[in-house]
Amino acid sequence: MAGPAFRAAAVRVRTPATSANLGPGFDALGLSLGLYDDVVVRVAESGLHIDIAGEGADTLPRDESHLLVRSLRTTFDLLGGQPRGLEVVCANRIPHGRGLGSSSAAICAGIVAARAVTIGGAEKLDDAAMLELATEIEGHPDNVAACLLGGFTLAWMESGVARAIRMDAADSIVPVVFVPSRPVLTETARGLLPRSVPHVDAAANAGRAALLVEALTRRPELLLPATEDRLHQEYRAPAMPESVALVNRLRADGVPAVISGAGPTVLALVESDAADKVARLAGEGWAANRLTLDAGGTSVLPLA
Ligand SMILES: Nc1ncnc2c1ncn2[C@@H]1O[C@H](COP(=O)(O)OP(=O)(O)O)[C@@H](O)[C@H]1O
Ligand SMILES: N[C@@H](CCOP(=O)(O)O)C(=O)O
């Protein structure tokens, strides 16, 4: 049987950074942030050519082991076959290994780009199937849900299948990130988690995660209690002691701060009039950035 046909024109995909967990919502809650990687994918006559600018330009592989290319390949297989050749041009702005969802961004960009360059791709792979595939590649659904859908997402697994709903965070909320210079791989930070946790901690997190949905969408004044976590942050402290100390210091000052994703970035969710002041609180050793909320998720854009 013949494989699929491909568009001759290049496709440009923009994909956001994400902050997962948000304190108590381990592997469930995610927030899409206004910091983006861009990728242009073109089907070529032969071979694989990868061009990378920005984050990872000195370290990422230029072969089939590149994460975005692996995601493209997996998606093409699902859509019925591989193109003869591929050109991939990446402009990376999301820092790697910092808890801002760079791997999810690469995975989602690959899936969306493969679907867009395949004629009839959207009919064969709908949005639910993209979430399922992205979760399979990433291993947990929280970042990829926010990355694909934008906004504030709640993801869960149902009979082994990832599902998600999208909400909008209150637009008075400003995400401020404190990014340290040293990375910690998500795999390392997940390896520090215990296999079981005390019932009292699980119960506390369930209540706070539920409260967080209300706080983030409608009542930001509840963000400090709503972002309290007992399931992952302290367990991860040995890999990121300065980050956990900064979270505790900010929280003691009344700032709703959490470890972003698996860390080591610290995320503060603050009202816009306090954002600049909060951004100055961390001091030396942190790149503090006042970001925006992303509403659109991973999108196919016109070529520049
Ligand atoms: N834009 C990208 N292109 C290719 N690979 C990427 C890209 N972004 C991230 N990765 C891969 O993902 C790894 C980081 O993933 P991870 O440890 O989950 O951290 P993060 O919190 O940034 O997602 C990088 O070391 C790299 O191997
Ligand atoms: N729920 C995951 C989130 C990982 O996010 P990342 O941005 O660090 O990849 C976890 O806490 O392990």
What this model shows, in words?
- The chain is an alpha+beta fold and 304 residues long.
- The chain has two domains: 11-168 and 295-301, Ribosomal Protein S5, domain 2 (2-Layer Sandwich); 173-290, Alpha-Beta Plaits, CATH 3.30.70.890.
- Helices cover 33% and strands 28% of the residues.
- It has helices spanning 67-79, 102-117, 121-124, 127-138, 142-149, 186-191, 199-217, 223-226, 241-252, 275-279, and strands at 11-21, 25-44, 47-54, 85-92, 152-158, 161-167, 173-180, 257-259, 266-271, 286-290, 299-301.
- Strand 1 and strand 2 (25-44) form a beta hairpin.
- Helix 2 (102-117) crosses helix 4 (127-138).
- The longest helix has 19 residues, at 199-217.
- The protein binds adenosine-5'-diphosphate and ligand LJ64HWYM.
- The site of the ligand N[C@@H](CCOP(=O)(O)O)C(=O)O has 17 residues, from strand 1, strand 2, helix 5 and helix 6.
How many distinct domains?
2
Q: Which parts are unreliable, with pLDDT below 50 for 5 consecutive residues or more?
A: none
Provide the CATH top-level class of the largest domain: Alpha Beta
The number of helices is 10
Overall pLDDT score: 97
> How many angstroms separate the termini?
36 Å
Rg over CA atoms = 19 Å
Oligomer: single chain
Question: Strand pairing plus helix content: what structural class?
Answer: alpha+beta
Shape call: globular
Task: State the CATH topology of the largest domain.
Answer: Ribosomal Protein S5, domain 2
Helix residue percentage: 25-40%
Q: How would you characterize the largest beta sheet?
A: 7 strands, mixed
Give the tally of β-strands. 11
- As a percent range, the share of strand residues is 25-35%
Ligand list: adenosine-5'-diphosphate, the ligand N[C@@H](CCOP(=O)(O)O)C(=O)O
Q: Secondary-structure element order, as H and E?
A: EEEHEHHHHEEEHHHHEEHEE
| Annotated CATH architecture of the largest domain | 2-Layer Sandwich
Protein name: Homoserine kinase
Pfam families: GHMP_kinases_C, GHMP_kinases_N
Family: Belongs to the GHMP kinase family. Homoserine kinase subfamily.
Catalytic activity: L-homoserine + ATP = O-phospho-L-homoserine + ADP + H(+)
